[in-house]
Fold:
Amino acid sequence: MSRILADIAYVRSGDKGDTATIGVIARTPEDYPRIKRSVTEEKVRELFGDWVKGRITIFEMDNIESVVVYMEAALGGGATRTLRLDQTGKALGNAILRLPVDRDNA
Structure:
């Protein structure tokens, strides 16, 4: 059975200008390694496609079992400039929950 990030994590997100930040927090300590394997720069770029025009950086936060996804040029210019219907970081935070989760080797 295929799993998505929403099955093992929750998110908090925000935006400033044209930058979106998404915190992906493990529901349990056992889920955190799967999050680190699943939330990579390459997989996030594949998920969002050309919506994110800038750099994507993933920061691992082992002490709180979460990762931060930092995306530049991700909001179509920002809230006052974009022609997108829902341009906020909150929308991207909800969207990242569709990311497929890598299966365990066990």
Notes: The chain has a mean pLDDT of 86. DSSP finds three helices and four strands in the chain. The beta strands are 9-16, 19-26, 56-61, 66-71.
